[in-house]
Amino acid sequence: MIECSRTHSLSVVVHVIGSLMIDRVVRVRRLPVAGETVAAVSSAMYAGGKGANQAVAAARCGGRVRMLGRTGVEGLFIVDALRAAGVDVRAICTSDAVAGAAMVMVAEGGENAIVIAAESNTRIAMGAVEDFVAAAAATEILLLQNECALLRETMELAAARGLRVWLNAAPADASLRALPLQLLAGLIVNEAEAQALTDECDPRAALEVLAARVARGTVVVVTLGAHGSIAAQGDARFEHAGFVVAAVDTVGCGDAFIGALLVAMASGMGLAAALARGNAAGALAATVHGAIPSLPECRAIDVLAASAERTVLESLA
Fold it and tell me: Between the CA of residue 212 and those of 34, 194, 217, 315, what are the distances in Å?
């Protein structure tokens, strides 16, 4: 079990280059089909972006986290949320003309549909990336996603500097297939992203294709939503069936998973135990509305991760 002490947090460093998004969330009884208009039950605005969410998730799990990103004046509240979670925000630029934003529809039961406008996140400069990476020590973790500019260049620079580069290949698009995946220490995708990268509908088959594309020893994780996660590392295969929860909002669940898993592995925990912690974090996040507000603290993850697979979350209350 990870001890969430100040000593622990100082020993685990996660560097994040990622997106900051203003999440505009509308809740609907069901998601509309093409051409249909539906009435929202409610609407709200939250701090978000995969990069920001994952940075906060790692910090709440005890990691010492620093982040590089870009937003506008209207996104200052996102920076405030990061700072409040303990993330080092000194490398975040807030002078862009237009902040990144996401339009999120959440249906009853937690199913969601999301449209992003990357805006400021596409204007991160290479000089800022170079300065940020230069301040990281070799063997420390650098976490990236596909919502920002200069992904390939950042991967190559960080790997050359000896950082352990992890990629959450989300959102998935055609550009990801051209990336040098052999440079990665870890790759994390959901089922849809795995299929987009491999053309395999079966996530287990997709896992094998991805495992063959990366360097031997690289961790590949496919998250399966309510059904947990599967992973490969070299010849070893791992699976955790997850936990049972009455989901109210699945936005941010994958980000919670990633933050918990990375801090666990950076702390020396094995992949099997790290999957349990990731699944616990994702399940807990599904019980709270919003992305950053839903990201759980370490002690709550401790309790659920120590429970048997498919444990019902309500039974722990």
Answer: 38, 13, 11, 40
